[in-house]
Amino acid sequence: MSDHAFATRAIHAGQEFDPTTGAIIPPIYQSSTHVQDGIGGFREGYEYNRAGNPTRSSLETQLAALEGGHAALSFASGLAAEDALLRGLLAPGDHVLLGNDVYGGTYRLLTKVLAPWGIQTTTVELADADVIRAALRPETKIVWLETPSNPLLKVIDIAQIAEIGHAAGAVVVVDNTFASPALQQPLSLGADLVVHSTTKYLGGHSDVLGGAVVFADDRFFEQVKFQQFAVGAVSAPLDAWLTTRGIKTLAVRMRQHSENAQAIAEWAAERPEFEQVFYPGLAAHPGHEVAARQMSGFGGMLSLALSAGPAAARAFAESTELFQLAESLGGVESLIGYPPEMTHASVRGTALAVPENVVRLSVGIEDVSDLIADLESGLQRVAR
């Protein structure tokens, strides 16, 4: 599949028709165990659902093909994928260099769950090469970045980070959830591993929870695979199947997400109610040139800083209709959230705290004129 275009791989990788019945869609193997041909005689390598399931295998083949990776592993959630990766690669005393604008759950996992185990974490501005080099230590094992980041849409030069990290002997991990592999493929830029919350753009319909790790080569696969097997936070067969179904429309969905978000960002940039628009598709965005170089589109996520302050931001988040107030992102429907008290409540009071006048938009694929009208109505309600 590597010689086919992205949209073709999204539809066909790992999706061979059922050889028994000819069904064009591979079945859901809703089975917890598999009959053995004698002790240890596993059919196609399957013995027990935690160790492996044909539906999950199909999804993992699909995920690896999308990211141009050697292999992939599918998990019950994005945080389960991150946990397996971190526990698989780290030992007590190791150090992680983390971007200073990341999903709150990632920060919580490192500083609340893994810190008592002896893992050290430093958060830095990863857009500054000198800052990165100064923050690296002999015990730094992982450099972890999101680009675009959550929720302030910072853009990090993946190739630059990979060069700096590898020179220091560190593994470079990219959370590619915001961009999706339809718009950005970090492994081709030098990253070692990619993580996803497949709940978001890959699933795409707000109906399934999942996560994934994709590997550039075979160096770390067995370590993370062991964590997946030993701890057991794997994708259920139906969840894997739903994610696979969502992926098949990823290419066309991401085009519309990006087109709608660009239009909304340009509209918002002209409104006095917003003192700042965080969207890499705008020429004024500090990461615009890097984003244009390493992405094929700018994505469906943007954040807005309300000029009138925190109270106005809270009120605006509660004043729209098509943009529904909810956590998560990446579905076909538009969502609005207030990160300081929702997705990023876990970083309040830290260096990663989100400005309290910021709202985050996950722009769906509805008609963009309806979405802009909804945002304008929300502003009018706030102004009353």
Key terms:
12 helices, alpha/beta, single chain, Aspartate Aminotransferase, domain 1, 384 residues, 35% helix, Aspartate Aminotransferase, domain 2, seven-stranded mixed beta sheet, 2 domains, 12 strands, 15% strand, five-stranded mixed beta sheet
**How many structural domains does the protein architecture include?**
2
What does the largest sheet look like? Answer: 7 strands, mixed
Regarding quaternary structure, how should these chains be classified? Answer: single chain
Low-pLDDT runs of 5+ residues are none
Can you walk through the features of this model?
The protein has 384 residues and is α/β, with parallel strands linked by helices. The protein has 2 domains: 6-247, Type I PLP-dependent aspartate aminotransferase-like (Major domain) (Aspartate Aminotransferase, domain 2), CATH 3.40.640.10; 250-383, Aspartate Aminotransferase, domain 1. It is 35% helix and 15% strand. The chain contains 12 helices and 12 strands. Strand 4 (140-146), helix 6 and strand 5 (171-175) form a beta-alpha-beta unit. The longest helix has 20 residues, at 250-269. The chain is globular.
Summarize the structure.
The protein is an alpha/beta fold. It has helices spanning 6-12, 54-67, 78-89, 104-114, 129-135, 158-167, 221-231, 237-247, 250-269, 288-294, 310-317, 368-383, and strands at residues 71-75, 95-99, 120-124, 140-146, 171-175, 193-196, 211-215, 274-278, 301-306, 324-325, 335-337, 358-362.
